[in-house]
# Entry
Amino acid sequence: MARYEVLATLLLTILFRRSVAQLSPSFYNSSCPTVETVVTNTLQQAMQSDVRIAASLLRMHFHDCFVNGCDASSLLDDTANFTGEKTAAPNNASLRGFDVIDQIKSQVDSVCNNTVSCADILAIAAKAAVVLSGGPSWTVQLGRRDSTTANFSLAQANIPPPTSTNAQLIAAYQNVGLSTLDMVVLSGAHTFGRARCTTFSNRLFNFSNGQPDPRINSTYLPTLQQICPNGGNGSVVANFDPVTQDTFDNQYYANVLNGQVLLNSDAELLNGTTAALVSNFSTDQTSFFNNFAVSMVNMGNLQPLTGSQGEIRSNCRRTN
# Structure
């Protein structure tokens, strides 16, 4: 009997650990029931002066989750004794909206202090950003805790650059546990927001044999060349979507088909099996929205810290 009791105890321990590690939409139902409302209202106010911030916060969540999971490591500032992820090539002078996350954190803590992690705030803000821009809603899984460290080298390696080929994109997503479908769907986030000239200007003048990228629509190319002249300021930004620039919709996929996208990684979606998905989403916004909601949950579930792991930061920019 003693042996069976030990086995039963071990089984219960395993089940308990699994339940602790599992995210739940009801995680703050008792401790901070209004957290999603507070996050959404604060972001809505920020969007009144900077509509671009919605796309920026969605991108921040993406960059966070691709480095050791969704743990708010991307929010940590460098110090004299600590190197975070903000100066890694995919993030440096590119990730933006940290001040808005600070504002949201302050508002959340004014309602329920030291209760909601920065990682969860970022996940909720990403959903609010999409919804407030006309996109789909989904049930955010909650209960993440914040990391006490960051990984500069992994931020350099894991976040796919704008020059990625289709094969490199698929591999980058598979590397963190996401599918090819997730990759095509999450690329649809380029339906709003901006990109710096430095991320795509190589396509405009000397892509191959001294010529622009032939995949760029011939009537669209002069517009981009005017925004980003050869040798010009690489920090100037252009709209990802020239048609519905600040609206979250399926226009991105029509833009891919029409050669009206900025990044090489966008144009690459027409290679291989992903082309069929692009075609489908370009005519079926409901399908795109439904799949986007699922893929955002999939991404949000990447290696979260839960239970006694990590911490609840009092300041999202530094560890406690």
Observations:
- The beta strands are 194-196, 237-239.
